Amino acid sequence: MQVLIRKARVSDPGSPHHNKVVDLLVENGVIAKIAASIKAPEATVVSAKGLCVSSGWVDIFADYREPGYEHKETIASGLRTAASGGFTDVLLAPNTQPALSSKSVIQYIRQQAAGNIVNLHPIGTASKDAAGNELAEMLDMRTNGAIAFSDGWTPIQSANLMLKALEYISAFEGTLIQMPIDSGLAAGGLMHEGVVSTGLGMAGIPELAETLMVYRDIELVRYTGSKLHITGVTTAASVEMIRKAKAEGLNVTCSVTPYHLALTDESLKGYDSVYKVSPPLRGAADRQALIAGLKDGTIDCIASHHNPHEEDAKAKEFDYAAAGMAVQESAYNVVWGAVSKVMDIDQVVATMSRLPRAIFGLPAATIEKGGIAALTLFTTEGLHTLKAANAKSTGVNNPFMDVAMTGKVIGVINNNKLHLNN
């Protein structure tokens, strides 16, 4: 394969071409040449007004539902969704049926994704079957391709089990991913506990359900010296605790979803279950604290928390509707729209490429001559609308569908393959 990328601004601080507008020639999966102008008459040409190129983006938490829930999403449709969203690498949530809790299921996931333009990295469960009772065979899964460990949507509630998991992975320098939800404090809650929930007459989920878990897990990291990534941070208090933990030198990183940067609990005033997510949408002050945390580096990266559902799962009374959004295709646009007034595009791109690669040990994919071509192509200007008819995900729960948003993912190059969006 030969691809010529014309007049693209490079967004890669590790590259000697950072912030320069150049042509890039990709041949057989390698960046063969970078120059002000390149002639390659046989190459497929990619060009766009305001084109930018960065190392391939990484989504550190997405759920493709296979095996077990293929009516919601499959690995094949999920990988198409990822490519459309600009991602060359995806860390797959473990909450399938059976759960990603053994080497055989890890191997199955990798076989299903083999040869795709997008690299799929399974997250193994920390506890057996993500049940929270006993440790899973994490070393065995690690040997067979698990990139990290987590109980995903059902975070570890037992402090003792969490301690044992952190101690276990420290032996091979693994990473534990935890969603900060105390299920006891969150039980029965439907949205953020506050003025809006009171006005709507809906049971609330207090901030304490998150902050207590963040505090506990930071203390366990301090005790074990292990490595923890907290995904789905939603409160100002959590951001501040993580900021202090980092200043202390603890091995704690964290991520935020696109929709927590863009939306607040005000979105639920219409009782629309598409806005029912876990962790819940919080208030305006928390949203601003998340943006500030992303800007100052306290929040390391973006995690889509892509959680696709079929129509029946959402078209119910709010109490019984499934939680989650299927936003992987829209992730870049949602994030850029939320933070573009206070962050530059290179900062945003770092949270989607360089930083998650460093945290989870993926190749840096530096844009330089001779480097492996793992690239995301995008623009920051102009309006783009993801039409429902063109969506790659089978999940219908994307509130940003058919909404004009700034910027566009042009495509991705990875594994000697090219994907271009319409």
Helix content: 25-40%
Q: Can you summarize the main beta sheet?
A: 8 strands, mixed
- Low-pLDDT residue intervals, each spanning 5 or more residues: none
Tally of separate helices? 14
Radius of gyration: 21 Å
Q: Give the overall form.
A: globular
Mean pLDDT, all residues: 97
CATH superfamily of the largest domain, by name, is: Metal-dependent hydrolases
First and last CA, distance: 20 Å
List key phrases describing it:
about 425 residues; alpha/beta; TIM Barrel; eight-stranded mixed sheet; four-stranded parallel sheet
Note down, in words, how this protein is organized.
29% of the residues lie in helices and 22% in strands. The mean pLDDT is 97. It is globular, with a radius of gyration of 21 Å. The protein is built from 14 helices and 18 strands. The strands form 4 sheets. Strands 1, 2, 3, 4, 5, 16, 17 and 18 form an 8-stranded mixed sheet that branches. Helix 2 links the parallel strand 7 and strand 8. It has 422 residues and is of the alpha/beta class. The chain has 2 domains: 2-52 and 368-420, Urease, subunit C, domain 1, CATH 2.30.40.10; 56-359, Metal-dependent hydrolases (TIM Barrel). The longest helix is centred in the middle third of the chain and has 17 residues, at 208-224. It starts with a strand and ends with a strand.
